[in-house]
């Protein structure tokens, strides 16, 4: 299998890459950004994608970092998923993001695949989507007019479409640290180990005087974009944790899912059922982990 | 710029300078340009793991990388694991031989490369950890049980080797 021919560029800086995107756009050349290539390369090999030009960010070592910035952990877009998985800082201060990194594909995929590439690709079955919604991650995006920061709620538009213009590059994701005492859980269901999830959920919550508070429930893999489910969060907020309540919240989350994907891997009803079960399991595990 | 571009890449300790077309995959480059046929190409879209190689000690899929992206990198393929002086098989290769960790052998280079990375970071993995690390490699002869046994044996040998080295020091 061979990709169709393309022009290849490997700019030395973000500025150069943005200028290149602008120039190619002006010349009506369809350009794709190549980060780790673990989604784009299969699409090229299968010729599902046939861009005129590839802009490879491999020389941008300045975008490889996991930095402690006080309340936020800043992760450079070209950081590999396995570096996120292995990061002691993330393990200690943002275990949900670390675990979500581990759940992506297999080790060989995570060694090449980048954090920024996954966010920019915006596959609805990507674990980072649910993490972004549950944790309130922000995306830093650089374009011809400079830099802007986008909140997770505004970032995901629909299938494989994020709020990144064709002349912009995602350069950093900003992950808030998890406050001590926060309970969390991340669960997904896939047909085989490492496959894209059919459905999944992420939960964070706190216990105040024995009652749930600051509950965040996010789901992914079921339709076009990851989403928080307010209906499930409100059921829990202020209530004493109990298995029956978790089941109700799971059902509420399942009912709130718009137009679930139905394909050869599972029907829409099956995906709804998965959401119901996974949200309930997540809530139980998060309560167990909350101090 | 669809035409040839020059790259310099080190494979199994040998430096190669070649001109490559940008769309050439690293897997095809290794097999056809460098005549290193030990890296097997199965699915060519990142599912089967047969084409796994090591880049700076980390396993990656050679079908999901362009040759041009390997410019300046250090690669180890299955051909590079054998001891260059004595010609002995790598302990992991030897363990696969002894425990019958292969039938047709097509997937074997990928399994062995993944095992190299696993044991380098975790010399005595649990069965769960072995299964997790090898989850990205498919064997269609369904020989997983003997593969698991091979990795256990390799792990024991690595441990014993370390103990022997420690005792003689």
How many strands of chain A? Answer: 14
Based on helices, strands and strand pairing, what is the structural class of chain A? alpha+beta
Helical fraction of chain B equals 25-40%
- Report the β-strand fraction of chain A as a percent range: 25-35%
Q: Give the end-to-end Cα distance of chain B, rounded to a whole number of Å.
A: 56 Å
Helical element count of chain B?
Answer: 5
Q: What spatial order of strands do you see in the largest sheet of chain A?
A: 4-5-10-6-7
CATH architecture of the largest domain in chain A: 2-Layer Sandwich
CATH topology of the largest domain in chain B: DNA polymerase, domain 1
- The whole-number mean of residue pLDDT values of chain A reads 97
Strand order, biggest sheet of chain B?
A: 2-1-5-3-4
User: Largest interface by residue count?
Assistant: A-B, 30 and 31 residues
Written description of the protein model:
The complex is a heterodimer of chains A (about 290) and B (about 170). With about 290 residues, chain A is of the alpha+beta class. Chain A has three domains: about 5-55, Uridine Diphospho-n-acetylenolpyruvylglucosamine Reductase, domain 2 (2-Layer Sandwich), CATH 3.30.43; about 60-175, Uridine Diphospho-n-acetylenolpyruvylglucosamine Reductase, domain 3, CATH 3.30.465.10; about 185-290, Enolase-like, domain 1 (2-Layer Sandwich). Helix content of chain A is about 35%, strand content about 25%. Chain A has twelve helices and 14 strands. Chain A has helices spanning about 15-25, 40-45, 80-85, 90-95, 95-105, 105-110, 115-120, 125-135, 150-155, 230-235, 245-255, 270-290; strands at about 5-10, 30-35, 55, 65-70, 70-75, 140-145, 145-150, 155-160, 160, 170-175, 185-190, 200-210, 210-220, 225-230. In chain A, the strands form four sheets. A five-stranded antiparallel β-sheet of chain A has the order 4-5-10-6-7, sandwiched between helices. Chain A has a four-stranded antiparallel β-sheet with strand order 11-12-13-14, with helices on both faces. In chain A, strands 1-3-2 form a three-stranded parallel β-sheet, with helices on one face. In chain A, a hairpin with a 2-residue loop joins strand 6 and strand 7 (about 145-150). The longest helix of chain A has 22 residues, at about 270-290. Chain A is globular. The termini of chain A are far apart. The model of chain A has no long low-confidence stretch (mean pLDDT about 95). By secondary structure, chain B is an alpha+beta fold. Chain B folds into two domains: about 5-80, Beta-grasp domain (Ubiquitin-like (UB roll)), CATH 3.10.20.30; about 90-170, [2Fe-2S]-binding domain (DNA polymerase, domain 1). Chain B has a five-stranded mixed β-sheet, with helices on both faces. In chain B, helix 2 packs across helix 5. The longest helix of chain B has 25 residues, at about 145-170. Chains A and B meet through strand 1, helix 2 and helix 6 of A and strand 4 and helix 4 of B.
